[in-house]
Design brief:
By secondary structure, the chain is mostly beta strands. Helices cover 5% and strands 47% of the residues. The chain is built from three helices and 30 strands. Strands 1-30-29-28 form a four-stranded antiparallel beta sheet, with no helix packed on it. Strands 2-3-4-5 form a four-stranded antiparallel beta sheet, with no helix packed on it. Strands 6-7-8-9 form a four-stranded antiparallel beta sheet, with no helix packed on it. A hairpin with a 2-residue loop joins β24 and β25. The protein starts with 34 loop residues before the first helix and ends in an 11-residue tail after the last helix.
Length: 445
C-alpha cells in the first residue's frame, strides 16, 4: 500500500474495518434531490469538498497534465507518448432536466433515468429519443430483449417496449404487478401483509421506492429490491410475481443475480445477504444461505464477476469488499480508493469500476487474486451515481477495451474508453521517469 498521492492502491486482504456509528452522515429524507443519502447514509451537504483530482494518483501522470496536447480535446482519440494503451474521456452528454440516477446500455443505445421522470435514449453521443412516466423518479433501468424495465421512486415497476415499426418510439405495455394479478390477489385477505400499525398492503406490490433491479436472463427472472425491505422475484414471460421475501431490517439499496444460482442483496442495515435459488415447477423458492457482511455503515452497491465467481460490495464508508468463491464464498480483501461512499459498481473482463460520492471512478484490474488501481477517472462535478460497461468495438486480441458510461448528480453522463492493458499508476510514473523522447531531426542546410 503506497501513499495516496502517487502510489499503487492495492487490495488489503481480510481486513474488515467497522467505522463508528457517529461517523455516519445522514441527510433530510424528505428532500427528493437528496434521496441518495436517505437510504445510504451519504451526506449531500455542500460542504463536502469537490474532487478536483488534486490528490488523485492519475494527476501525477504526465499524460494527464492540462498542458499536454493529449488532454486538450475530450473527443480526440489519443495514445500515450510511449504508444501504450490509455484510459480517458471520450465525451459528455448533458441535459438540464435533473440528476442522473440510472442508466443501461445495449448495443449502440444508452438509456438514462433522472429525477425529471424522463427516460432518455442516446445514440452516438447524441439525443436519440425518450419517453416519460407519469410519476416517480427513475431509480433503476434494466433491458431484457425487447422489454425495458424501470424502477421508480413511487414504488412502481414500469414495462416498456420498442416499437417494431419505429425504433425511436417506446410504448408502455404495463407495470408490475399486472392489473389482472393485482385484482386477483386483492380478493384474498391472506395476500396482505401488515406494514404499519393501521396499514396492510398486497404482498406482490412494493409500497416504497424501487431502488434496484437485476436480471437473470438464463432463468428469465427479474429481481426488484425496495426501501420497503422486500426482495421480489418476477417471471419476465408473463410478469407474474413468484416470490416476495422480507429480506432485510432496513431499505434494500442493491440486488444482483450472481453465479451458481445465487442472488445477493445489500441494505441500509449494513448487511450483505446471499440467497440460493431453487426451481419448483414453474415457480421458484429462494432460501437464505448466509450473511457475508454485517457492519454499521450502509451497503450501497453490489456487482458480480460471473466468470471469476467474485462478488464486490461498496458501502457508505468508501470501501469495496470482495469475496471469491472456491468451495464456499471467502472474503478476499478490501479495495481502498475513495474518500466517500461507493455508490455504484460494475465489472467487465478483469476490470472492476467503482463510482463514488467523491465524484471519481476508480478502475481496478484483477490479476491472480490481486487488485491494482489502473487509473482514477475524474471530471464529474457531482457524485457518480451509476455505471454501465459495454465492449469497445475497437478491441483487439492483445488489447481488450471497454466503453464505460457514468451517470452523475451533476446532470451529466460521461463516456470513457478503458483498456485492460493500460499500465497501472505506479508503472506510468516509473516509465515517465525513464522516458526519453526521440530527438528531432535537424533541418537541412
Amino acid at each position: 500500500m503506497r501513499n495516496e498521492r502517487g502510489g499503487v492502491v492495492l487490495a488489503e486482504r481480510n481486513v474488515l474495518p467497522r467505522p463508528k456509528l457517529s461517523a455516519i452522515l445522514r441527510s433530510d429524507p424528505k428532500n427528493d434531490e437528496e434521496e441518495m443519502s436517505r437510504r445510504s447514509n451519504v451526506s449531500m451537504d455542500s460542504s463536502v469538498p469537490p474532487s478536483s483530482g488534486e490528490n488523485s494518483p492519475l494527476v501525477m501522470s504526465p499524460w494527464n497534465h492540462p498542458s499536454s496536447p493529449f488532454a486538450k480535446s475530450p473527443w480526440t482519440k489519443s495514445s500515450s507518448p510511449m504508444g501504450l494503451p490509455q484510459n480517458g474521456l471520450i465525451g459528455s452528454m448533458v441535459r438540464e432536466e435533473g440528476h442522473v440516477y440510472s442508466l443501461a446500455a445495449t448495443g449502440n443505445l444508452l438509456y438514462t433515468g433522472s429525477d425529471s421522470k424522463n427516460i432518455r435514449v442516446w445514440k452516438n453521443l447524441k439525443a436519440y429519443s425518450g419517453f416519460k412516466s407519469n410519476s416517480g423518479l427513475v431509480k433503476a433501468i434494466v433491458i431484457s430483449g425487447e422489454k425495458i424495465f424501470t424502477g421508480h421512486q413511487d414504488g412502481k415497476i414500469r414495462v416498456w417496449r420498442v416499437s417494431p415499426k419505429n425504433p425511436k418510439l417506446h410504448k408502455r405495455i404495463g407495470s408490475l404487478p399486472t392489473f389482472k394479478d393485482f385484482l386477483k390477489s386483492s380478493i384474498n385477505p391472506k395476500n396482505y401483509v401488515k406494514v404499519r400499525r393501521k396499514r396492510s398492503v398486497l404482498r406482490i406490490k412494493h409500497f416504497d421506492a424501487v431502488s434496484c433491479l437485476s436480471l437473470d436472463q438464463d432463468q428469465g427472472l427479474l429481481y426488484s429490491g425496495s426501501w420497503d425491505k422486500t426482495l421480489k422475484v418476477w417471471r419476465i414471460s408473463d410478469s407474474k410475481c413468484l416470490e416476495s421475501i422480507r429480506a432485510h431490517d432496513d431499505a434494500i439499496n442493491t440486488v444482483v443475480a450472481g453465479f451458481a444460482g445465487l442472488v445477493f442483496t445489500g441494505s441500509a442495515d449494513g448487511t450483505v445477504k446471499v440467497w440460493h435459488r431453487q426451481l419448483h415447477g414453474k415457480g421458484t423458492k429462494h432460501l437464505f444461505l448466509q450473511t457475508l457482511l454485517n457492519q454499521e455503515t450502509a451497503i450501497t452497491s453490489l456487482a458480480v464477476n460471473t466468470e471469476g465467481a467474485i462478488i464486490y460490495c461498496g458501502s457508505s464508508d468508501g470501501l469495496v469488499n470482495f469475496w471469491e468463491r472456491e468451495k464456499h464464498l471467502k472474503h478476499g480483501g478490501v479495495l481502498r480508493g475513495h474518500k466517500h461512499a461507493v455508490l455504484c459498481l460494475a465489472t467487465a473482463g478483469n476490470l472492476v469500476f467503482s463510482g463514488s460520492a467523491d465524484k471519481s471512478i476508480c478502475v481496478w484490474r484483477r490479476e491472480g487474486g490481486i487488485h491494482t488501481c489502473l487509473s482514477v477517472l475524474t471530471g464529474h462535478t457531482g457524485p457518480v451515481k451509476c455505471l454501465a460497461v459495454e465492449e469497445d468495438q475497437e478491441s483487439t486480441q492483445g488489447d481488450q477495451r471497454w466503453i464505460v458510461y457514468s451517470g452523475s448528480l451533476d446532470k451529466s453522463v460521461k463516456i470513457w474508453r478503458v483498456s485492460e492493458q493500460a499500465p497501472d499508476i505506479q508503472q506510468m510514473r516509473l516509465m515517465a521517469q525513464n522516458y526519453v523522447p526521440s530527438p528531432l531531426s535537424s533541418p537541412a542546410k
